[in-house]
Amino acid sequence: MDKYNFRAVEKRAQAMWARTDGESKDAKAPVGKFYCLEMFPYTSGDLHMGHVRNYSIGDVLARFYRMNGYEVLHPMGWDAFGLPAENAASKSGTHPAQWTQANVAKMKEQLKALGTSYDWDREVNTTSPDYYRWTQWIFLLMYRRGLAYRKRAAVNWCEECQTVLANEQVVSGLCWRCDTEVKSRELEQWFLRITDYADRLLDDLVLLEQWPERVRSMQVNWIGRSEGAELHFPLLQGDEEQIISVFTTRHDTVYGATYVVLAPEHPLVDVILQNHPDDAVRDFVDQSRTIDTQERVAEDFEKEGVFTGAYARNQFTGEPIPIWVGNYVVYDYGTGAVMGVPAHDERDFVFANKYSLPIREVIQEPQRQEKELARAYTGPGSMIHSGPFNGINSDEGLERIADYAEEKGWGVRKTNYRLRDWLISRQRYWGAPIPMIYCDACGLVPVPEEDLPVVLPVDIAYKPGPNPLMESEEFVRTRCPQCGQPARRETDTMDTFIDSSWYYLRYCSANYDKAPFLSQDANHWLPVDQYTGGIEHAILHLLYSRFITKVLHDAGLIEVVEPFKRLLTQGMVIKGGAKMSKSKGNVVSPDAIMRKYGADTARLFILFASPPEKDLEWSDQGVEGASRFLQRVWRMFNQYLTEGRGSKRPVSAQDRALQQELHRAIRRVTHDIKDRIHLNTAISAMMELVNATYKYLEEESPCDALVREVFSTLALMLAPFAPHLAEELWASLGGGDSVYHQTWPVYDEALAQAEEVTVVVQVNGRVRERLVVSLDNDEADIETLAFASENVQRFIADKTVRKIIHVPNKLVNIVVG
RNA sequence: GCCGAAGUGGCGGAACGGAAUACGCGGCGGUCUCAAAAACCGUUGGGGGAGACCCCAUGUGGGUUCAAAUCCCACCUUCGGCACCA
User: Fold this and answer.
1) Are residues A314 and A459 in the same domain?
2) pLDDT over threshold 60, residue A299
3) Residue A335 has pLDDT above 80, yes or no
4) What angle is formed at CA A125 by the lines to CA A120 and CA A127, rounded to 5 degrees?
5) According to the model, what pLDDT value does residue A369 have?
6) Residue range(s) defining the domain that contains residue A389
């Protein structure tokens, strides 16, 4: 018996696709459009198993929708700017451009070997001037719209990467790329005003019904909207004009505010120190200011404070209250100052007890027994000691106090966000240059659109160390577009997350050279119907892309407000319980697997082993199993078609049973791909059909027409998963054209229905008998049969029948007691 | 601490109010073979019983229901996000 030769089969199929490339794109009279997108890879050099998983899932969907008559956009490209290219260049002496190009070539070959069906006519590469020209264009658009600006601020600095990082790129105090501890540095940098969009980014999450809950919740956390009020506490001594503003979400407790605390960095601290010089305070402030943010948020960090000697007025009570400086107050958040309400805030309670500050209860805790307050009560309750608000419930008090504060001018309603503006400057070479010019006379001048792209010089000798752009006279020296005088170019490049935050738009008009994209193309294809990629981008890439989409929408360039309609975040590929990594030595190379078993097996295993969104444990035996299944299918076809044992004869019960299996399989495979994207169960449905067919073929005389129907359907259903084998099987059935030019099989509900069903008979919910009866049998007859069962009778015995639950064609439950 | 996800055979997982353990892996037995591999067939949650059958089991404990892996409440464990955020 011949063995299935995957090498020959894959070669034949790929040669055929190369010939017919482009044909499948032109669906005649499409039933609709389907934009099927997978996150494009960073060009690190090799495809890893995570990519194989990602792109296998996407390819199944693209092929499935094509066969279902959709006009499918399934593009691929390269996220190719970035630091690893520079690091590799430092190590090997290859120019980042060369390194990148070589990697693109290799990865593209690997993708093709995997049998993916990308539309390579739309390939994009973020390092190509044809691409980053438009990245720069988008930057200028944002600059014009007041969304790109420079400011001096404390920023995250990674010593290893020699560049600054956005907040999103600092993961628990470490650089997202190299795990180096991030330091704070005071620098002037470019920012994008993503905070202007905080509300919309948060509110529009409800539109993303087809996103995983956890991604949405991560974005909610990240944006961190907090609604409250800013309340004013005028300084009593010294300069009466000075006001301390505090942010609070519990302004209902303001009558209990017995002190205020300033962050050590707060500017008023210095003002107070001038009026109340005190060495102890000075020392405390100086010391606190040097403590690292990292250290400050540590679990065991001791909350400490010192009284400044100054007082402010709580305008609600009219009382003077002491002003403290506290090392736990974060200058970056809110106003950098807080009011202390020890009775109703846990931190304040601890702080007040430590420094013997007065504690005043202003919310009555319902049903409290003890007279003494043992800990802060943070729940709602009736307001007390709160002047005109006594007796009001604190929930309502929030509104009433806010109104009162605004009326009196003692404060305003205020919403705060955790989200910070997006820091996009990078002191790196391998990125898109920020298209700005510094002129001594005119100041900051944007590069005129017609001068784009600002080309990244690639003919310079790359060497490790600081950004070589700074030393490139040729790059830096330019003329001011406004006055024509000599000027300098910005040498910082853009965060590569900008490149990837609009690539899905570029695909729509990949070869258009007058604009980043044509609105009509974008409006045709967007939103992306199905976006597939790793969970690691839950915040970074997905938040930035949503932001850019909204900006482009506001500029009138696109209709959609959200770019990705349905999101699938695939799980990691792990081995031995850990993520595959070189350092752990548990990496399985896709090349090796494809060499040994072929692309179809690699795809099938990775899709079968786990549902897409869960982590997938790699199993060599599982790969064997996938390979065995494909062999089994191939052998079944080969054997039957060469032996030709089929015959024409009247339809038997066995024929009917197989036909039923067939239609059930179509129903399940279709539903599992389309509605649930549970590709593992779709595959198991096909396995069941193959098992049933093997059993059927063991019979004396299989019905030829039926076998051929099963075979051709199987070839069609297998096509998205094992594209090469499917092509071979289709050809073996005499189908001339590619299997992808066929339409997806349709199931017949009536044929999927069995003529005989098993009805379960329960007594008090426990199964006691199974009846095989014809479909839609008379209910009374079934109940008679049920009661006739000896075993059922045993459990009914002398008890009284209280109730009979009858679910047609499923079960009868006899309740006795 | 807050938010989210998940706990099912030896393993990956299926079922997501109506037969728990589909499918695959692994194990066991068989056919073929001098033998092995491959392939094919059968079997495989635990316990009891000669057997018909019975009992127990979906992280733990309650609840709703004729019926719960599935719905509700509480708890435990694991993973992920956020966090002196006022």
Assistant:
1) no
2) no
3) yes
4) 160
5) 67
6) 226-416
Give A290 or A769, the one with higher predicted confidence.
A769
What is residue A652's predicted lDDT score, i.e. its pLDDT?
Answer: 83
Nucleotides of B under 7 A from a protein CB: 3-5, 11-15, 18-20, 22-26, 38-42, 53-55, 66-68, 80-86
- And the tokens for A605? 């295993």
Mean pLDDT, all residues of chain A: 91
Render the burial of A540-549: b for 16+ CB within 10 Å, e for the rest.
bbbbbbbbbb
Assess contact for A456 and A101: CB atoms under 8 A.
Answer: no
Cα–Cα distance, A35 to A527 (Å, whole number): 7
Q: What is the per-residue pLDDT for A294?
A: 55
pTM here is 0.94
Is position A231 within any domain?
A: yes
**Nucleotide closest to A214 measured between CA and C1':** B4
**Is A136 a residue whose pLDDT tops 90?**
yes
Is residue A78 a part of any domain in this protein?
A: no
* Per-residue pLDDT tens digits for A218-271: 999 999 999 999 999 999 876 567 899 999 999 999 999 999 999 998 999 998
The CATH number of residue A248's host domain is 3.90.740.10
A672: nearest nucleotide, CA–C1' criterion: B14
How many Å from the CA of A569 to C1' of B13? 19
Asked, for residue A207, whether it belongs to a domain, the answer is no
Spacing of A681 CA from B23 C1' in Å? 8
In the predicted model, what is the mean pLDDT of residues A78-89?
91
Give the CA A681 to C1' B7 distance in Å.
Answer: 21
Q: Using an 8 Å Cβ cutoff, are A580 and A588 in contact?
A: yes
Query: Do A721 and A607 belong together in one domain?
Result: yes
CB A689 within 8 A of CB A661: yes
Amino acid at A300: D
Going by their DSSP bridges, the two strands A226-234 and A425-426 should be labelled as unpaired
Boundary (domain end) residue, out of A447, A475, A497: A497
- Asked if residues A40 and A94 have their Cβ atoms less than 8 Å apart, the reply is no
Q: How far apart are CA A101 and CA A98, in angstroms?
A: 5
Relative orientation angle of helices A723-732 and A6-20, to the nearest 10 degrees: 90
The phi-psi region of residue A207 (left if phi > 0; otherwise alpha if psi is between -120 and 50; otherwise beta) is alpha
ipTM for the complex? 0.94
- How many structural domains does chain A have? 4
Q: Please give the sequence-ordered ranges of beta strands (E in DSSP) within A709-787, or none if there are none.
A: 756-763, 766-774
Q: Which helix (H) or strand (E) holds A496?
A: helix A496-499
